[in-house]
TrEMBL record:
Its EC number is 1.1.1.49. Pfam families: G6PD_C, G6PD_N. Keywords: Carbohydrate metabolism, Glucose metabolism, NADP, Oxidoreductase. It catalyses: D-glucose 6-phosphate + NADP(+) = 6-phospho-D-glucono-1,5-lactone + NADPH + H(+). It comes from Ostreobium quekettii. This is Glucose-6-phosphate 1-dehydrogenase. Belongs to the glucose-6-phosphate dehydrogenase family.
Length: 489
């Protein structure tokens, strides 16, 4: 509204995430008219820079989603004129006081709301949060703090972090971001389940044979090896992004769409899950591949990765939910870097049709005839259902065909990036898509024992060549539970 002002402070403004995601998302929100009229954006980081130089660093990353015309250029200029830079250390109270002073001058006598986005390494995390909260909080409006993973590296460290954060911020001020929750098709998952009569009745062990959540990237950790090596793929992607998908997929219907009701159900289902067992984990690490045209570096070829590292860049895990709805249904999660394809999908394989009426029409492979629901999160957002139908014409040939719901066609340029949706939610104080502290705790409890075991045993990852389909162990893990992994479409 006209009598309030919004200040966004991106702490860690020179980082990759800030440049690639946060500033472009803020610009997109401005472009769409979603920000209040009076706003300012501050980058905060250690390097010396003035406002102009800072603007130069972010302008390169801004794009116009809808039209690239003159109007967009003007909007960019306006946006940039509201971007400022404050140089400072993360653990220096006076630097944050300087920022506070500049903000206060700009905000004037308006009611001022402040959003802090902490996009910084774990070791400076608490001091930056403390300084933002204690030295730089608005005295007239709300203060909200967005925090990015890693939220610790196991149950104990995560709890420690939460407690330290809790000394400076109230839980309702903390927005733990998991950007997968801001993706269009993940948002759509609950709509699909709870607003269609035909899905929810099938959504249980009675009809679903297994659920697969597959994440695959066709590039390695190039340049990010330093961070990645300390975490590995389970902490980087599975314990958060993929597990969040499972929680939304498998939770009971919430009492309402209110944030607390949804998160209550997510915690409940996470707490019903069995902690992952060592024998249900396959680890992999990619190696160099030389083709005629190109040499693809192995994980260990990255200068930022310690020699002899056994950090997994691939993992497949089998998980189970011990409740009435899902008892015995394997949830198979798989994530890897430097694989043959880029994509993320949820694949729901249904049971065989009882009885044998048409089975012979499918030849030897009974799986060929089962129904499968595929939710493609990216690229090319889509949903399709594999159903059996007769090949038109004389005779009786049956084929497994697709009932298709593409979302990307014609519309893809307009689909907002996950960060846009999530940042707007922060501005609006909507916590539906953010992780509550007990959810985080439950998520860590599922993976901490096995992560410790992996470290204790110094478990060696299976090597796989860059650009391949990943370690063959994943195939055997599937077979153990009678699951054949779907191929990314
Ligand atoms: C991040 C991980 O959280 O998600 C990265 O740290 C990963 O390793 C990225 O590449 C994937 O996000 P997206 O949106 O590109 O699928």
């Amino acid at each position: 509204s006209a009598d309030s002002t919004l200040s966004v402070v991106v702490v860690g403004a020179s980082g990759d995430l800030a440049r690639k995601k946060i500033f472009p998302a803020l610009f997109a929100l401005f472009y769409e008219g979603m920000l209040v009229e009076n706003f300012q954006i501050f980058g905060y980081a250690r390097s010396k820079m003035d406002d102009e130089a800072f603007r130069d660093t972010i302008v390169e990353t801004l794009t116009c989603r809808i039209d690239a015309g003159e109007d967009c250029g003007k909007k960019m200029d306006t946006f940039l004129s509201r971007c400022f830079y404050q140089q400072g250390q993360y653990d220096d109270a006076t630097d944050f006081q300087r920022l506070d002073a500049r903000l206060s001058v700009m905000e004037g006598s308006l009611c001022s709301n402040r959003m802090f986005y902490l996009s910084i390494p774990p070791k400076v995390f608490i001091s930056a949060a403390a300084n933002a909260a204690d030295q730089c909080a608005s005295r007239t409006g709300w203060n909200r703090c967005v925090v990015e993973k890693p939220f610790g590296h196991d149950s104990a460290s995560s709890l420690e972090l939460s407690q330290a954060l809790g000394k400076h911020l109230q839980e309702d001020q903390i927005y733990r971001i998991d950007h997968y929750l801001g993706k269009e098709l993940i948002e759509n998952l609950t709509v699909l389940r709870f607003s269609n009569l035909i899905f929810e009745p099938l959504w249980s062990r009675k009809y679903i044979r297994n659920v697969q959540v597959i994440f695959s990237e066709d590039y390695g950790t190039e340049g990010r090896g330093g961070y990645f090596d300390e975490y590995g793929i389970i902490r980087d992607v599975i314990q958060n992004h993929l597990l969040q998908i499972v929680a939304l997929f498998a939770m009971e219907p919430p009492v309402s769409l209110e944030a607390e009701d949804i998160r209550n159900e997510k915690v409940k289902v996470l707490r019903s899950m069995k902690p992952v067992e060592m024998e249900d984990v396959i680890l992999g690490q990619y190696t160099k591949r030389v083709s005629k045209a190109h040499t693809y570096p192995g994980y260990l070829d990255d200068d930022t990765v310690p020699q002899n590292s056994i950090t997994p860049t691939f993992a497949a895990v089998a998980m189970f939910i011990n409740n009435a709805r899902w008892d015995g249904v394997p949830f198979l999660l798989k994530a890897g870097k430097a694989l043959n394809k880029r994509g993320a999908e949820i694949r729901v394989q249904f049971r065989h049709v009882p009885g044998h009426l048409y089975r012979s029409k499918f030849g030897a492979d009974p799986d060929a005839a089962t129904n499968e629901l595929v939710i493609r999160i990216q690229p090319d957002e889509a949903m399709y259902l594999k159903i059996n139908s007769k090949v038109p014409g004389l005779g009786l040939r049956i084929e497994n065909s697709r009932l298709d719901l593409p979302f990307h066609e014609e519309r893809d340029r307009e689909l907002p990036d996950a960060y846009e949706r999530l940042l707007l939610d922060v501005v609006n104080g909507d916590k539906r898509l953010f992780i509550r502290s007990d959810e985080l705790e439950a998520a860590w409890d599922l993976f901490t024992p096995v992560l410790h075991k992996i470290e204790e045993l110094q478990a060696q990852p299976e090597l796989y060549p860059y650009g391949s389909r990943g370690p063959v162990g994943a195939h055997y893990l599937g077979a153990k539970y009678n699951v054949r992994w779907g191929d990314l479409s």
